[in-house]
């Protein structure tokens, strides 16, 4: 009986040491992965990297990690013209089936899903915020974007008719979609500018706009989008996503 107790104590101690070693190893690996991802994507701040699953060390021996969660704040994505950038807040991605090279210099996830947010003030930069003529004597421009409820964006437009600014801005609810990596905002109806007849195409030149988003980390792509209280919420996805190397 005494020998059995000793054996159990030894097993518990060894198990505890293994858990400690495993957690130390995973913490070190998370730090290394974060540093490599920062360098690979040229990030201004170190991202959050969390390696899921236990034990970690047996996954390392197998050359593949089941699940890695990555968080990046204030990521600057290409806006489609190669020069401008658009800020993406709180980009979160769940990487599945991450395989890495023997020297850990490269890592690729079989699949990835995640979420991100583009603030309304950031998306507003895409809209025509400078007064633009929509008819003789009539100019208009977008002055605000906000949550319109039920997944819609409220687009607020300010207009001037014959040199007089309308006393109140007009607004319209708009649908937001993603097509080929481009966020598109399209008005469900058309606002009226002081009763002046204006061609639909001229009005939509103000109310409707789009924003191309390129170069998301590891090659992930935009999937779906909808309006939310703090901005446009986007879901992202990808396959064979490169984390490093």
Automatic annotation (TrEMBL):
Pfam families: LmeA. InterPro entries: DUF2993 (IPR021373). This is DUF2993 domain-containing protein.
